[in-house]
Amino acid sequence: MTSLFRLHAALQQARSGSLHGLAFDTKAIDAEVTRLQSWIGERSSNKPAPDVTVAAMHAFHRDQELLNLRQARLVCFGCIDPILPDRKRLIEDERRFPKLLSGLDAYQADPRAFRRCYRGLLYGYFGYDAEHAPFSGKRNWEQLRAYLRERVTNTVASGWSPEWVDALQANAHLLSDNPGEAYGLTLLVGGDEEFDLMRKALDVHDSSWLVWRAVLGQIEAATRESDDAFRAYLPRLLGLLARHPLAVNGGMKQLLSRYRACKPLMVHPGLRDFAVERWGNPWLSLNKAKW
Q1: 209 pLDDT exceeds 60?
Q2: Could you count the other beta carbons within 10 Å of the beta carbon of residue 158?
Q3: CA–CA separation, 227 vs 218, rounded Å?
Q4: Which residue of 86, 162, 194, 196 has the smallest Cβ count within 10 Å?
């Protein structure tokens, strides 16, 4: 990419300097630079092929050290996949996963090299559901979040940056303890364009925990509204919970607690039916644990 920028800069200089008076149309070159930037950015951000990832993962599992940047990138992208012996995941390994993170610091001095590994870790961060993971996985995921947050600026280099780098700098709150909260009110009132653009740039899939955490963010935003406004949002919020079952327990807790504070207090048929459908009849002892 450096050579392309030098060529582009040289042509621009020639146009305004030594060849003053002659007209050059650089639109084609500009378009080609943009296309190549996008192509290289996409290639370095894409998840590698499974066969090469498996080999790199098994080597790291055996040797517990990173031999080079290529292996480091492959291991980062494969850290949440069940491809180790006995289909274990590296992120759930209490000894090896911290070694992976500490080994990556050797590349921090070169942002372009470091962000190739960082991108793989970010893929794992959004793809691993720590909420329903074993204790070791949840703890390592929290360590991963802290690692990404503390080094988010180390992915920025002079010159051109991949789209995902710029998107992450603008949305660094995604690495906070409550990443769905920032989008709550915006999504609640129907402004989903910013959220969708962020998801596309960072390759956040529909199965990511961030999607259902954003649902909780909308519910949190609704609970801060007036009683009448909150009641008006209920049908939409119940519809969201119906489409995102992982958010049901946390979402219902917030909805029921907020509805109880509404004045006047009366039965809401939709909220009642949804709660009973998910948690069962609260009068029956067998459903006590859910309630």
Answers
A1: yes
A2: 7
A3: 16
A4: 86
What is the rounded end-to-end Cα distance, in angstroms, of the chain?
A: 58
Average pLDDT of the chain to the nearest whole number: 86
Q: Which residues are CB-contacts of 271 (< 8 A; sequence separation ≥ 6)?
A: 234, 238, 255, 256, 259
What is the pTM (predicted TM-score) of this model?
0.77
| Distance, CA of 198 to CA of 208 (rounded, Å) | 13
Instruction: Please report how many Cα atoms fall inside a 13 Å half-sphere around the Cα of residue 123, on the Cβ side.
Output: 21
Contact status, residue 36 vs residue 75, Cβ threshold 8 Å? no
222 near 237, Cβ under 8 Å?
Answer: yes
Task: Give the list of residues 6+ apart from residue 121 with CB closer than 8 angstroms, or none.
Answer: 76, 79, 104, 144, 147, 148
- Residue 44 in tokens: 């370095």
**CA geometry: angle 275, 279, 280, nearest 5 deg:** 95
Say if CB 188 and CB 239 are below 8 A apart. no
Q: Whole-angstrom Cα distance, residue 65 to residue 269? A: 58
Q: What is the number of helices (H) and of strands (E) in the chain?
A: 14, 0
| pLDDT score recorded for residue 38 | 42
CB atoms within 10 A of CB 93: 19
Mean pLDDT of the region 79-84: 95
Tell me the angle at which helices 248-260 and 227-243 cross, rounded to the nearest 10 degrees.
160
